[in-house]
Amino acid sequence: MKRIKCVISYDGSGFSGYQIQPNKRTVQGEFEGVLVKMHGGNEIKVHASGRTDANVHAYGQVLHFDTSLAIPSTKWIKALNSLLPDDIAVSHVQQEDKDFHARFSVVSKEYRYKISRQQERDVFSRDYAYHFPYELNIERMREAAQYLLGTHDFTSFCSAKTEIEDRIRTIYEIELFQYNNELTMRFVGNGFLYNMVRILVGTLIEVGQEKIFPAQIKEILEKKSRIYAGKTAPAHGLYLWQVNYDN
Amino acid sequence: MKRIKCVISYDGSGFSGYQIQPNKRTVQGEFEGVLVKMHGGNEIKVHASGRTDANVHAYGQVLHFDTSLAIPSTKWIKALNSLLPDDIAVSHVQQEDKDFHARFSVVSKEYRYKISRQQERDVFSRDYAYHFPYELNIERMREAAQYLLGTHDFTSFCSAKTEIEDRIRTIYEIELFQYNNELTMRFVGNGFLYNMVRILVGTLIEVGQEKIFPAQIKEILEKKSRIYAGKTAPAHGLYLWQVNYDN
């Protein structure tokens, strides 16, 4: 048996999220369906770096699975891409050692969030960026981001439904850059809790609207309660951009 | 009655083209449907700069219609955008004199064609650029484009089904530029025949593949027969980019 690592992208618009669910179209369901075909009807379990919600996109999601098929990496890409639906694509395939795990070996992850700032809605980005045509004080948002960097208990910045107990995470980088009318927010961290990036974005937007002062971020973190942070930004602006492993 | 000019964009993926057809979802059908609502059930005829085929996009299609409603231009944008489906958006509204006509007043039009040149298919551009992962000699394509500039009989470069007799058109500009893995081809002319841009693109692609020599373009024009030009490039890479009028 060989362990295969795949880097995939998907357009989240047509999926009820990454994780397999009965009677729903999911990324995992589609991917495992293709592997079943390739393995003559045998089920192959796929492991991802993590889940993504409905309408959340991936530019560089990472999966692994074990296979007895003797196919070279370049042929894997062609074979998978010819069988996968057109809203999932494989960009990279590589054989890994048995101790590699798409989820447990993760060192850091990068998410990006795109905001379309043009006045009227843009038909081409309607599913790929959050349309927010109002004023934003970007310098204040950058100042606020400084308070989020480093190691914190992010209880205030995750869904109240989060079941995991350890909410301490480290954010290495937050970067905001604009190109034409599009604002992109980049988040790199050792891990992110449920809805965490979308709540960080929603809160930074409220900072940009001058509803929240940058220095209040420190207090919101200390409160350890979801009710103090901003709204959860919509799913369709979010991209799982890159997953990093030791190599 | 006031004559209103609208600049609209649409994602062509969900339409059976611009022009209204029974039992099909069309841009004109959706737009006229919104105007009927705004005019208390009265039908309002919309005139466009020209038709676009199924899956062809518009970044700057121009329409006009006559109305008795006394709405200022900025309110027209908001009203139309709130009623139109999310794959059609109005970017500009302006009152015009009665002698303005979206089709007959056109001075020139710009079309763009996008080609995605990355090796593996890209899920995010699958409906918005033609995926062509093969070698292209861009310099030869630019050389070939020079032979297309100016005033010619473009019979060889329009659909054999074209009914219009006068196939003489003037192309003012053809520009090819690359950004990341995307090649954009810009065409500006006084008018374009049925399928003309897609056949020009398909032919230039064959020049890029070195199947056709740049100087052969001159001969293809002279043959005045569709069979000598290249294939018709797919619709989903094409954008009606801008329509220009005297002002």
Order of secondary-structure elements of chain A: EHEEHEEEHEEEHHE
Number of strands of chain A: 10
Strand content of chain A: 25-35%
- The CATH superfamily of the largest domain in chain A bears the name Pseudouridine synthase I, catalytic domain, C-terminal subdomain
Topology of this protein?
The structure is a homodimer of 247-residue chains.
Chain A: E1 2-10, H1 27-38, E2 47-48, E3 57-67, H2 73-83, E4 88-96, E5 106-116, E6 130-131, H3 138-148, E7 150-153, E8 168-179, E9 182-189, H4 196-208, H5 216-223, E10 238-245
Helix pairs in contact in A: 3-4, 3-5
Task: Walk me through this protein's architecture.
The structure is a homodimer of 247-residue chains. Chain A has 247 residues and is α+β, with helices and mostly antiparallel strands. The first copy, chain A, has two domains: 2-96, Pseudouridine synthase I, catalytic domain, N-terminal subdomain (Alpha-Beta Plaits); 107-245, 2-Layer Sandwich (Alpha-Beta Plaits), CATH 3.30.70. Chain A contains five helices and ten strands, in the order E-H-E-E-H-E-E-E-H-E-E-E-H-H-E. Chain A has helices at residues 27-38, 73-83, 138-148, 196-208, 216-223; strands at 2-10, 47-48, 57-67, 88-96, 106-116, 130-131, 150-153, 168-179, 182-189, 238-245. In chain A, strands 1, 2, 3, 4, 5, 6, 7, 8, 9 and 10 form a ten-stranded mixed β-sheet that branches. In chain A, helix 3 crosses helix 4 (196-208) and helix 3 (138-148) crosses helix 5 (216-223). Chain A is globular, with a radius of gyration of 19 Å. The A-B interface holds A 9-11, 57, 77, 81, 86-91, 120-124, 126, 128 and B 9-11, 57, 77, 81, 86-91, 120-124, 126, 128. Chains A, B: Residues 8-104, 144-246 form the Pseudouridine synthase I TruA alpha/beta domain. Chains A, B: It is an enzyme of class 5 (isomerase).
